[in-house]
Amino acid sequence: MANVKFLKEGQEVFVSDGDNLRYKALENRIDIYTLMGKMMNCGGYGQCGTCVVEVAEGMENLSPRTAVEERKLKKWPANCRLACQTTVHGPVAINTKPKRSKKSPSESPASA
User: Fold this and answer.
1) For a designed S-S bond to 30, which of 25, 60, 92, 98 qualifies (C-beta 3.0 to 4.6 A apart)?
2) What is the largest CA-CA distance in the chain?
3) How far apart are CA 15 and CA 1, in angstroms?
4) 32: nearest Cα among 21, 42, 45
């Protein structure tokens, strides 16, 4: 068992090793979607990119980023994940509905 802390909601959820982050959040009534995401989400197939969460602690306890995430999260910081593509393998702390911030210059490709 692992614990997932949803920081903005002040809620802690216990999950089994390998559980899907999106599924467990929704199962526990954690709102991970913005208004647009509520209206247009793909149901957890990684196609819409609306279930973005920010990992505040415990990135090492999550599955590696998928190819889908690499494409969908190009403009997001490295600590952001798609909840639908993420499985939990240890304790983590999550911020739901993060604001997209610009990548730092070290993360951006050098301009020619």
Assistant:
1) 25
2) 48
3) 6
4) 21
Cα–Cα dist 111/4, whole Å: 39
37 confidence band (pLDDT: 50, 70, 90): confident
17 vs 87: CA distance, rounded Å: 8
Residues in the chain: 112
Find the DSSP H helices in the chain.
Answer: 21-27, 35-40, 67-72
- Which residues, in sequence order, are CB contacts of 106 under 8 Å at separation 6+? none
pLDDT band at 6, cuts 50/70/90? very high
